[in-house]
Amino acid sequence: MRTLRTCLLTVLALACGMQADAARLMAGPSARLAANAPQLMVGRLELEWGDPRPQAKAGDTLAGHFRATLVDDAGVRRALDTDQALRAAEDLHALYGRRIAVSTVPVAAKSRGARTRRIDAIVPIDDLVSAPSSDRIRARAIAQRDEAIGGITSWVTLMCKFNDVATEQKTLAFFQSQYGGAIGQLDHYWQEVSYGQINLAGSNAYGWATLPQPRSYYVTLDTTTNKDKADLTKLFQDCVAAHDAEVNFALNGGVQGVNMMFNGDLDGFAWGGSRCVTLDGVNKCWSTTWNPPWSFNNLAPLSHEMGHAYGLPHANNSDTDTDPYDNPWDVMSDAWSNAVSNATYGSLPKHINIYSRNRLGWVANDRKLTITAGSQARSVAVDRASLAGSSNRQMLILNYPDQTTRYYTIEVRKRGGNYENRLAGDAVIIHEVQTSRKEPAWSMDADRPPATRANNEGSMFKVGELWISPDYAFRVKVESSTAEGFVLSVRPGPSKSRPGQAQPS
């Protein structure tokens, strides 16, 4: 993989006109040779996540949806196989909204004489000039965006009605108030989660506009699954067009994102991610959400979708099932369990986990500590992740010198504050991170087998308990409590033990 990535970067750096060259080859006598050669696609990466309603109907799946799309400079959209893309990129989520190069190679298909193509490498094009090698790309062991999200991140709410659905579930005043700075409102929440590094100043909502088509035009039956499928492109285009005359999308150089509120169900899912288009002369990948009434009635699922729109993937727990909604320590997994309730805004969002905070660039360097496997034992005071202005560490990273896609994060979560009053307990929470997974961060569980939902005692490491990594590389013991967290000892694991178990020393 390293050689392949290096070769791809070298080719791109030396010849950005590779696509044109490939086209000429295809037109000539070397067409057969060209068909068997690697092919290159260039564009920006869209990612979208679909999240089911909280009380799924019989037969519905909780697996959710995950889509990856390459949008070229002409606006042509090409769906990418997400499993292939995750493997090829090694950290696909870190490339969210960025310009990338996708290399594909032919593979034999089952039908006689037919060939198909698979993705064998994905690299960010913006790495070409500064680092024409694989080193920088692979140095993402502690995943973080190259540019942290900070400052003003203005949003616009577009309220859109299907032309055959008259119901208006909420007023314009309600949606405008969601962006407020009081406890339980979006500006307050995202400022608290980001340690004050972002705000939603300038965000606004625009009243109900009628779409040109009925719901059946935008939501059709997928004959392969026999389930509804929402056309997110049509919904985005028509909802934006319905409000284009009154909305300045170029505000602040291009608003951060677009929250669309629809007055009817979509396909049983709320969606969050991005759209790479030109609006009011600004061409960028816009943070975007698509919300049915059950989503915008509660701030927790709306914040979940906005998290996706900021580029955050789902979290998960370690029970290895297909359900990514069973980690109540993170609004990017289970937005509903252990949530604070509000009379106006319904279920309020918990915080995101420390992995996600770090991915968006919100964890200061002096608040995190990386400990490499084989390092000497050390004792560390770790404050709760929700504490603003901490003077201690808030993120421990257990790293491997020979691995770039796998590591562990450690954080402290405690009941209290505005959004975390109903957490399962006060404890140390450990996540295994595999950046090539759909849900990179999985909470660790001492129970065997792991619980189906991570608000169990086995997922909460408390004073006197220890955790040993499954590969015996790390031994983490919760030594004592402090006013804002815990003191932990971290040392190499024993040669023989029960890995991953919480037990007294």
Task: Explain the overall architecture.
The protein is α+β, with helices and mostly antiparallel strands and 505 residues long. The protein folds into 3 domains: 2-89 and 92-138, no CATH class; 154-309, Collagenase (Catalytic Domain) (3-Layer(aba) Sandwich); 364-504, no CATH class. Helices cover 18% and strands 31% of the residues. The chain is built from 12 helices and 27 strands. It has helices at residues 2-14, 18-27, 31-35, 82-89, 135-138, 172-178, 186-193, 215-218, 232-243, 293-296, 299-309, 354-359; strands at residues 39-52, 65-71, 77-80, 99-108, 115-124, 151-152, 155-161, 198-199, 204-210, 219-222, 227-230, 257-262, 269-279, 282-291, 316-317, 341-342, 346-347, 368-372, 378-383, 395-399, 406-413, 427-434, 441-443, 465-468, 475-481, 485-491, 503-504. Strand 24 and strand 25 (475-481) form a beta hairpin. The two termini are 42 Å apart.
Task: Itemize the secondary structure elements and their pairings.
Layout: H1 2-14, H2 18-27, H3 31-35, E1 39-52, E2 65-71, E3 77-80, H4 82-89, E4 99-108, E5 115-124, H5 135-138, E6 151-152, E7 155-161, H6 172-178, H7 186-193, E8 198-199, E9 204-210, H8 215-218, E10 219-222, E11 227-230, H9 232-243, E12 257-262, E13 269-279, E14 282-291, H10 293-296, H11 299-309, E15 316-317, E16 341-342, E17 346-347, H12 354-359, E18 368-372, E19 378-383, E20 395-399, E21 406-413, E22 427-434, E23 441-443, E24 465-468, E25 475-481, E26 485-491, E27 503-504
